[in-house]
Write a structure and sequence with these properties.
This protein has 13 helices and nine strands. The protein is of the alpha/beta class. It has two domains: 176 residues, NAD(P)-binding Rossmann-like Domain (Rossmann fold, 3-Layer(aba) Sandwich), CATH 3.40.50.720; 90 residues, ProC C-terminal domain-like fold. The protein starts with a strand and ends with a helix.
Length: 288
C-alpha cells in the first residue's frame, strides 16, 4: 500500500473537474477542493433537481446544471474535463457510464466514489481504454481529515492516478491499493467513522449509567474521541504506543482495558470489519 498524498504534489490537481451527482460525499470532495484553492471556474457539477443545482451554485459559486432541466447536463459538464467524478448511487453508476461514454474525451479520467461497483463493471460501460479509478472515501473529508483508498483500472497509468489523487488530497490522505483490497479499506476507513461514533455513544451511555447527566456524558465522550483522533493524526504515531502511555500499571485505565479484552472487544471489531468486507463483496456480485 502506498500513500499517494505524500507522493503527489497538490499543484498536480487537474485543471477541469466535473462532479456528476453532488450528494454528501461528492459535495464534501467538491468543497474540499475549492477550500484548497482550486479555481471555481475549473469546476462543474450536475445534480438531479433544479432546486439542488441552484442551492449548490449559490453555496459554492460553481456552475451547476440539473438533469431535471437539461437532459444533456452531464455532457455539458464533462466536455472539457480532465477528471469526471461519479457521485450517484451504486445502482446507477453503470447506467451513468453508458450515458456519458459518447461525450468523454479518451484521456479523461473517470473516478467513482460509489461502493461495490467494480472497475470491470465501469470499464465495460465505457469506451475501451478509458482511464478508470475506483475510490473509497470516508465522511471526514467534510472537515478536511478524510482517508481515501484508490484502485486503478487496466488503462489508468500513473498520470491518471495522480489526477485522481489531486481531486481528493485537498481533503485528506490518499492511498493506492489493489482493487481486491478496496473492500477491506472500506471496512476499516470507509465505515470506520461510524465505529468511532459508536464508541462515543457507548462511552456516553456508560457515563449516564454511572450517574452523569446525559448531555454532560455526551459532551465528555465526544470531546474525548475527537481529541484522541487529533493525537492519532500526528505523523508517525502508533495507536498502541498512545494507549500504553495512558495505561498506568494497576491503574484505572488498565482495569478498563482488561475488561475490554476479557469481553472480546478487539475480536468483535475484527469480526465487524470482516462482515462489512463480506457484505461489500456480496453487493459487488449482485450489482455485476
Amino acid at each position: 500500500m502506498t500513500n499517494s498524498s505524500t507522493a503527489t504534489p497538490q499543484n498536480s490537481a487537474p485543471s477541469t473537474i466535473a462532479f456528476l451527482g453532488t450528494g454528501n460525499m461528492n459535495g464534501a470532495i467538491l468543497r474540499g477542493l475549492l477550500a484548497a484553492g482550486h479555481p471555481v471556474a475549473s469546476v462543474r457539477a450536475t445534480t438531479r433537481s433544479a432546486a439542488s443545482a441552484t442551492a449548490l451554485a449559490q453555496d459554492t459559486g460553481v456552475e451547476v446544471r440539473s438533469t431535471e432541466q437539461s437532459a444533456r447536463a452531464n455532457d455539458w459538464a464533462i466536455a472539457d474535463a480532465d477528471v469526471v467524478v461519479l457521485g450517484v448511487k451504486p445502482v446507477g453508476i453503470a447506467q451513468l457510464c453508458q450515458e456519458i461514454a459518447p461525450a468523454l474525451r479518451p484521456e479523461t479520467v473517470v473516478v467513482s466514489v460509489a461502493a461495490a461497483i467494480t472497475l470491470a463493471a465501469m470499464e465495460a460501460a465505457l469506451p475501451q481504454g478509458q482511464p478508470v479509478v475506483r475510490s473509497m472515501p470516508n465522511t471526514p473529508l467534510q472537515v478536511g481529515a478524510g482517508v481515501v483508498g484508490l484502485a486503478r483500472g487496466t488503462a489508468a497509468d500513473d498520470a491518471a492516478v495522480a489526477l485522481a489523487t489531486g481531486v481528493f488530497e485537498a481533503s485528506g490522505q490518499v492511498f493506492e491499493v489493489p482493487e481486491q483490497q478496496i473492500d477491506v479499506v472500506a471496512a476499516v476507513s470507509g465505515s470506520g467513522p461510524a465505529y468511532a461514533f459508536y464508541l462515543a455513544e457507548a462511552m456516553a451511555d456508560g457515563g449516564v449509567a454511572l450517574g452523569l447527566d446525559p448531555e454532560l456524558a455526551r459532551r465528555l465522550a465526544s470531546a474525548t474521541v475527537a481529541g484522541a483522533g487529533k493525537m492519532l493524526s500526528e505523523p508517525g504515531v502508533d495507536p498502541a504506543a498512545l494507549r500504553k502511555a495512558v495505561t498506568s500499571p494497576k491503574g484505572t485505565t488498565e482495569r478498563a482495558i482488561d475488561v475490554f479484552d476479557a469481553q472480546g472487544v478487539r475480536q468483535a471489531i475484527a469480526a465487524g470489519e470482516k462482515a462489512a468486507t463480506d457484505r461489500a463483496r456480496q453487493l459487488s456480485a449482485e450489482l455485476a
